[in-house]
Amino acid sequence: MYNLIKFNLDIIQNPIRETTAQAKRGHIYFVDLGYNYGSELRDGHYCVVLASQGKVATVIPLTSKNPINSKITRVNLGIISKLPQTIISYALINEITTISKSRLMIPKIKGKKVNVKLNASQLDDIENELKNYLLKTS
Question: Which sequence ranges form a coiled-coil region, renumbered to this chain (predicted)?
Answer without folding.
Answer: none
